[in-house]
TrEMBL record:
Top-level taxon in the UniProt lineage: Eukaryota
The protein's name: Uncharacterized protein
Boundaries of every NB-ARC domain copy: 1-167
Record GO biological process: defense response
Family that this chain belongs to: Belongs to the disease resistance NB-LRR family.
Keyword annotations of the record: ATP-binding, Leucine-rich repeat, Nucleotide-binding, Plant defense, Repeat
Residue stretches making up the Disease resistance protein At4g27190-like leucine-rich repeats domain: 553-657
InterPro entries in the cross-refs: Apaf_helical (IPR042197), At4g27190-like_LRR (IPR057135), Leu-rich_rpt (IPR001611), LRR_dom_sf (IPR032675), NB-ARC (IPR002182), P-loop_NTPase (IPR027417), Plant_NBS-LRR (IPR050905), WH-like_DNA-bd_sf (IPR036388)
Entry-linked Gene3D superfamilies: Helical domain of apoptotic protease-activating factors (1.10.8.430), P-loop containing nucleotide triphosphate hydrolases (3.40.50.300), Ribonuclease Inhibitor (3.80.10.10), Winged helix-like DNA-binding domain superfamily/Winged helix DNA-binding domain (1.10.10.10)
Keyword 4Fe-4S: no
Length: 658
């Protein structure tokens, strides 16, 4: 990493470089290493200046540091005002080729206000800074930004062993293996490796090391040095967040297990129902706000993205998660307020001293078999019971009694959970209910009393016999119903933001529509024209004898940008795609009978379609396993925006591009 930073900085076109990353990741150490290297190569710059800025930015303090380094300090300097001092600094630095190293900046530092001449490609001046915020890099106008990441395991373990020391590591042959386990708990964060390594340097019995592992696994904040040296440093990033909404989102993410990949869309749905985001005016606006909040946490280095799934998921570094749990429990003083025992192998409900003080509880990803009555949870607002998979088979009616404030209940991915008690009707504040991928056979008695329900997810509930009457839940704004035998009042639900029917069902989002496993003898594409906000369309495993082209006037699917058609039968063409003028992604797979994408005969049936040139904005095209496909269009298309194309197993396709 040191060499990479050095090489980038010495490039002619680099004037300002930003190093960003989470607290304790080693940004300052990296900057010091570069400072030492520059001091060893004195010919590169006339002067190298190091200044620690810190959270409370004071222009005057930076100017005083500069005055000392530049030999300007004295009685005359003291009498000057801020502007005059800036002029003095500028007059000296404008004649020098300098390197300015600014450590730990939290907001934009106005170089002109300080008196520092702005670095350019020609003058050879350089400014390098460290920050926890990628947003600061943008505001500083960097030429290069580099993320300082946690150490890979071998490097992390080497650092940890250095702190523990050879005397301890050799005191027992088993300590080396246990040290590896403890080091992994630090997840490559140098701050944690240093502090925990030093704490273990005097521990020379197997029992002490095993105890350390137990503490770090259960309540890591109680480990020696955590509350004094690690968590407070990370908390600076939390304190610097701009709003309570953003802070609440970060704490909410701590409900998930270690290293869990959190769906961005799902997280936004939780936040809307919890009231962290106001969804009263527009669901689309609320969703956009949710993604903005998640983005701000990523830029603050408090949430992370996997490069391959950055559009869909985020996750927390384990030490950041411990910090969030520590804050949520009032710095460890009230642990029962925020109970998270997710992914730890529980087989029954945990022991809680006072259920009436519990506000949020996550028991997801465990092996709990039955949930029975509690003493009442008068303050409980959030309950995660999802992903107990094959083990969770029943929830007693008594359990749901005395939960007047419960807002979010997630029961998804409990495939053997076949029924819910009628007492669920007593959850009068419930706004979010997720029963997707469960074995639910019928909606519980009293279900329609949940008048405050905003989000209902019944996706892939293939055993559910009926959703008749569900439209009586007048506040629903987000709804997924999947695998339902009887669609009941399906037409009355068209105004919902989300509607799903899969396996005899349909899913309509404000931005997405999916039709799965439908046996349709005839389908009129004009049905889609009433869904103005649809951006994405999925047709999966459906049978269409024909898609009629009697598209009403002005029905041009202006928002439709992504279409996936797969595993469908009796589809010979997709001429209606001509009306999707903003289509950017088209994926067609395993549609055995399709012969052409656009049919010339169908196009010339109506005057309104004959002048349209299709696919003008298409960027990605995938055609896979289409044995009868001969052409996309009767003449070659320019495909001016096409950047990616995949064609596989389409033996009759002879011509595609001009």
């Amino acid at each position: 990493m040191l060499e990479t930073v050095w090489n980038h900085l010495m490039e002619d076109g680099v004037g300002i470089m930003g190093l960003y990353g989470m607290g304790g990741v080693g940004k300052t150490t990296l900057l010091k290493q570069n400072n030492n290297k520059f001091l060893e190569n004195e010919d590169d710059f006339d002067i190298v200046i190091w200044i620690v800025v810190s959270k409370d930015l004071q222009i005057q303090n930076i100017q005083e540091e500069l005055a000392t380094k530049l030999g300007l300090a004295g009685e005359d300097w003291i009498l000057k005002n801020e502007h005059q001092k800036a002029c003095e600094v500028h007059n000296v630095l404008r004649r020098k080729k300098f390197l300015l190293l600014l450590d730990d900046i939290w907001t934009k530092v106005d170089l002109t206000e300080i008196g520092v001449p702005y670095p350019s490609r020609k003058n050879g001046r350089k400014v390098v800074f460290t920050t926890r915020s990628q947003e600061v890099c943008g505001r500083m106008g960097v030429d290069v930004e580099m993320e300082v990441q946690c150490l890979q395991f071998q490097d992390a373990f080497d650092l940890f062993k250095t702190k523990v020391g050879e005397i301890t590591l050799r005191s027992d042959p088993n300590i080396q293996n246990l040290a590896s386990i403890v080091a992994k708990k630090c997840h490559g964060l140098p701050l944690a490796l240093n502090v925990i390594g030093e704490a273990m340097a005097s521990k020379r019995t197997i029992q002490e090391w095993q105890h350390a592992i137990d503490v770090l696994t259960s309540y890591a904040s109680e480990f020696f040095g955590m509350e004094d040296e690690i968590l407070p440093i990370l908390k600076y990033s939390y304190d610097n967040l701009k709003s309570e909404h953003v802070k609440s989102c970060l704490l909410y993410c701590a409900l998930f297990p270690e290293d869990h990949r959190i769906s961005k869309h799902g997280l936004v749905e939780y936040m809307i129902c919890e009231g962290i985001i106001d969804g009263s005016e527009s669901m689309e606006r609320a969703q956009n706000k949710g993604y903005e909040i998640i983005g701000s946490l990523i830029r603050a280095s408090l949430l992370m993205e996997d490069e391959k799934k950055a559009l869909r998921e985020v996750f927390m570094h384990d030490v950041v998660r411990e910090m969030a749990l520590w804050i949520a429990s009032d710095f460890g003083k009230h642990k029962d307020n925020f109970i998270v025992r997710a992914g730890v192998g529980l087989q029954e409900l945990p022991s809680v001293k006072n259920w009436n003080v519990v506000k949020r509880m996550s028991l997801m990803s465990n092996k709990i078999g039955r949930v029975s009555g509690s003493d009442g949870c008068l303050e409980l607002t959030t309950l995660f019971l999802q992903k107990n998979k094959k083990t969770l088979v029943s929830i007693s009616g008594e359990f749901f009694r005395f939960m007047p404030r419960l807002v979010v209940l997630d029961l998804s991915y409990n495939i053997n959970l076949s029924e819910l008690p009628g007492e669920i009707s007593e959850l009068v504040s419930l706004k979010y209910l997720n029963m997707s991928f469960t074995g639910i056979q019928c909606l519980p008695v009293g279900f329609l009393e949940l008048k405050n329900l905003i989000h209902l997810d019944l996706e892939d509930t293939s055993e559910l016999s009926s959703i008749v009457g569900i439209s009586a839940l007048v506040n629903l704004k987000s709804q997924h119903t999947g695998g339902v035998t009887s669609l009941g009042t399906i037409r009355n639900l068209n105004h919902r933001n989300h509607l799903w029917f899969s396996s005899r069902s349909v899913f309509q989002l404000s931005q997405a529509l999916a039709v799965k496993s439908c046996q349709l003898k005839s389908s009129n594409i004009s049905l889609l024209s009433s869904m103005e906000k649809v951006h994405e369309l999925l047709l999966d495993g459906c049978t269409f004898s024909d898609i009629k082209m009697d598209v009403p006037e002005n029905a041009y699917f202006m928002n439709l940008s992504r279409i996936t058609l797969q595993h469908c039968e009796c589809v010979r063409d997709l001429t209606w795609l001509m009306f999707a003028s903003n289509l950017t992604v088209l994926f067609i797979c395993d549609v055995k009978e399709v012969e052409g994408i656009i049919s010339k005969e169908k196009v010339y049936v109506g005057e309104e379609s004959s002048d349209i040139v299709p696919f003008q904005k298409l960027r990605t095209l995938r055609l896979i396993d289409l044995p009868e496909l001969k052409t996309m269009y009767w003449s070659s298309l320019p495909f001016r925006c096409l950047t990616k194309i995949v064609v596989f197993n389409c033996p009759k396709l002879r011509k595609l591009l001009k």
